[in-house]
Design a protein that fits this description.
Helices cover about 30% and strands about 35% of the residues. It is an alpha+beta fold. A 4-stranded antiparallel sheet has the order 1-2-4-3.
Length: about 90
């Protein structure tokens, strides 16, 4: 199954959209990677529209710091191939 976008292009697309992220990683369940995430302070509506043109299945999650809950941010989660396999097998 072919992904609708290249996951390796996500950081460059975020840069072109004007989103500055400060951390990134992979979300896994039982050693299977489902999402690549990028933590940012904020994402505007215009930036989100650009991100959704690149990847329609992108998901946003609100995040807070463990020791300073007043510090908020957003995690931009790009689905990986395992997520698509699981989604279409149900």
């Amino acid at each position: 199954m072919k992904l609708p976008y290249k996951i390796t292009e996500a950081p460059r697309m975020l840069y072109r959209a004007g989103v500055s992220y400060h951390a990134f990683g992979t979300l896994k369940v039982c050693k299977t990677a489902y999402f690549d995430y990028y933590k940012a302070d904020k994402v505007t509506d215009a930036q989100l529209e650009t991100i959704r043109e690149f990847c329609p299945d992108v998901q946003l999650q609100g995040i807070r710091s463990e020791y300073a809950p007043e510090i908020k941010g957003v995690a931009i989660c790009f689905p990986k191939a395992a997520w698509y396999r699981n989604k279409f097998s149900l």
